[in-house]
Amino acid sequence: MKLLRTIVFFASTTAASLAQDYRDDGNYQDWDNQGYGNDQGYYGSYDDSMGDYFDKAAGVPQGGNNDLIKMAAGSVFGWFVGGKIHSGKMASKLKKKHAQERAAFVQLYREQVGALQEFNKESARIIQAMESSIIARQNGVPAEIDTVPFFMADTDGSKKISKAEFDRYVRDYLANYPGLRPEDIPKWDSFDHDHSGYITFDEYNKQMMKEIRKAQYRAAKS
């Protein structure tokens, strides 16, 4: 459709130009000097008929060029508006995709940072438990007693173990050593000698000494 409009526009422009060139041609003056052309004569009527002919041949009525210009301007405007709408949709789609990717990246970053913080926290707790165990050795705790579990179970650093801390430690211990059974680990009541609801370091040491003697006795009998 755009190609057809362009062809019609150039045809009308060419026809009008040819007609004007013919009017401006020098032969017109010769014919006038010879008495063949005047405002009312043959050439005047010929000139009018030729102008009508070219206009009709071009198929463009009066004011046709203005209509073509308006149509061309409308086509350009429509193309511009369509392009703006299309580019707007593409920009919105890319923006939405970027937001989703950014949200996924932020979520992954938070998870990794959280895991790293938890690892650092656990590492610090293990180091502290080992340092406390060394201090206990220096204060006369027998070498055969492993004091690290007590300080590992004491997550709040209160120097005593609550029932919740004890249960959590036993649960994690069994998860790390699948070969063990719950009955292989001493019960809560075995450590809480005074039934205070807490296991002190002294209670832990006394019970661990009993557990060591039991293990030695079973080994001797077998």
Please outline the major beta sheet: 2 strands, antiparallel
The proportion of strand residues reads under 5%
Question: Within the CATH hierarchy, at the fold level, what is the topology of the domain at 141-221?
Answer: Recoverin, domain 1
Average pLDDT number: 74
Rg, alpha carbons: 52 Å
Termini separation (Å)?
104 Å
CATH architecture of the domain at 141-221: Orthogonal Bundle
Describe this structure in words.
By secondary structure, the protein is mainly alpha-helical. Among the domains are: 2-62; 141-221, Recoverin, domain 1. It has helices at residues 2-24, 27-33, 42-58, 64-138, 148-153, 163-176, 188-191, 201-221, and strands at residues 160-162, 198-200.
Descriptors for this entry?
2 strands, single chain, Recoverin, domain 1, 222 residues, rod-shaped
Question: What's the layout of helices and strands?
Answer:
Layout: H1 2-24, H2 27-33, H3 42-58, H4 64-138, H5 148-153, E1 160-162, H6 163-176, H7 188-191, E2 198-200, H8 201-221
Antiparallel strand pairs: 1-2
Helix pairs in contact: 1-3, 1-4
